[in-house]
Structures are given as C-alpha cells and as structure tokens.
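Consortium newsletter contribution from the modelling node. Members have asked for a concrete example of what our holo predictions look like. Here is one, prepared for the zinc ion complex that several groups have been discussing at recent meetings.
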Amino acid sequence: MIFPIYIIGASVLRKKAVKIDKSYPDLKELIDNMFNTMYSSEGVGLAAPQTGKSIRLVVIDGTEIESDDEDFSDFKKVFINAEILERDGKEVSFEEGCLSIPSVREDVKRLDRIRIKYQDENFKWHDDVFEGFKARVIQHEYDHLEGVLFTDRISPIRRRLIKNRLQALSRGKFDVKYKVRLASKR
Ligand SMILES: [Zn+2]
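And here is the predicted structure:
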C-alpha cells in the first residue's frame, strides 16, 4: 500500500511523535508500506508523521545515492524510538527538500556528525555514529519526529521570502506525482 504524504499545514507534522513498542499493530506491514511510499515518491527518507502517524518511526534508503566520498551501500535503515545523543563535527550548509514541502529547496546548516540511539525493526537497540550526508538525512527525518520542518531552520530572511509560497502549498497549490493529504479545512 502507498500512503498519501501529508503536506505542510497538516497538524500531524507539528506534533512531537510518541514512542512505540513491539505491540504496535501490524508494524512489519507498516514499515513495508512506508518503504513503498518512499520509493514511489522518490524520497531517500520518510518519517511516520509524514504519513499521518505520530509515532517515532523513520525509514531511510540511500543505497542508490552515488558518491565518490561516502559509501551508501549499507544505508538502508529503520529507526524506531530514535534519540540523538550528540551532535558535533563541523557546520555544513546544504540545499534540502522534503516530500511534505513540494518544490521548495533551501539551504540548511547542520552539524555533520551525530551519535544516535535507536531500535531497528526487530527492536534491537543500536548506538551508532553517522557522518556527512547520512548525518544530514537522519537529522532531517528526526526533526519530523519533533514536529520540526527544514523550513524552520533556514535564515529568517529566506523564511520571510517563502512564507506566502508555504501557505499556498498548504492550500494545495502545487503539482506532484505522488498522493498527498492536505490539512483538513475548517
Ligand atoms: Zn522531510
């Protein structure tokens, strides 16, 4: 099953997501569906709130990324109940986009090394360090669990400049090939 992607303006994207445990219903199927949804919308990462579920679950598959500097061949992961323990390294600026904010790309500064504690799809705990682009992707998805969008992290000037565009997105003024869900009308 392919889920619709919730678009900026939807309240679920602004909630702090809750932890889950093994008893979460049909979790394996949910993870499969999240991967399928991500592939069909050509994303590298997807957080559960983007599919309307406010739980601490993220899927990432960067194995198709081609790079001479970093090895992405093992970068297919499920993060459950993740918690970033440390952020350090150097601050790097890079243009980000998001399936929930169609057609907008903006420079975001992030530290390029993180240490993160998380459970995998079998609820086994890991404590890993990620660097470079991997650290960026994980931080972007992790932000979704905290109700934060990348447009919250751009410069105040840029944010003011794209404010109207973001409001138009929330009203459905965009064109994408994947299924979406807008904020319910009041
Ligand atoms: Zn995103």
